[in-house]
Task: structure prediction
Amino acid sequence: MKIELGYACLNTSVTIKMKTLRLKTYLEKGNEYLKELVLHNLNYLMECLKWNKENQVFFFRVSSDLVPLATHHEMSFVWQEDPDILAKCREIKAFAKLNGMRLSMHPGQYTLLNSHREEVLLRSVEDLEYHRQMAELLGVTDLILHVGGVYGDKSQAVRRWVEAWETLSQGVKDRLRLENDEKSYTIREVLEISDKTGIPAVLDFHHHRILPSMDTREALIKAVESWSGIGIPKVHLSSGKVSELDPKHHDLIHRTDYEMACEYFQWLPKEHKKIYLMLEAKKKEQSILKLRDQGDRPRGLTDPAV
Result:
């Protein structure tokens, strides 16, 4: 089993930083200023990928904030048709492909396909379309999403989610992957939706620890099997900030949590020779470097990066 470690969105070792934009500032400074910010953020992404190449990291979650105010109704800049932005996106996509990098994105907590409010659903679909456009331009293969809220009736919320999913564009459907969370939807419930829709399931070990619903080994095997015919499975791992059951992420990944995940990986069927493990930690790439510094590889596994 080869484990490909990744981290999310930002890199603390890169000297430049992502830039955001308030609506008031945008309305004052206009589209040219916004374009400068988008190009800056794309340059930041490229710097992250260059660092990843130098440090043998081939799995990365791209920030959703590359285009500030991307889905705001008062934003008029057609960024996806700008020749300079398209050229930079092509450069990033080619670099990632040349170096065998897997890129993902994770739409935020307000992207709720099962909301009972029509305006929230419409904004959620718009957000997923923004992610699809960015994914196509950058070569992103995975859009990770949580199920969302319960709204007093979980069975109806799941029904609404599936109905909304059926209306999505094929480009979104092809990339969508569903993750369990620590408050509302267990991995068992995610797997049930996966069975209905064919969406691959992403097991988050820490969320499952907080909100368990089935044996962890069985959950991992079933989640991995849901990727059959779609791609190499991905799994999430984080450590609690102050305790095992703390939903807030620690700065780094505890070695014991990493070893726990690796032990479960050994139960996977032999045909699964590789898995992508996204480390969700506050110090981002430092979580990978720390695991490498800690030395010995888990027994029976061949992760050359650890």
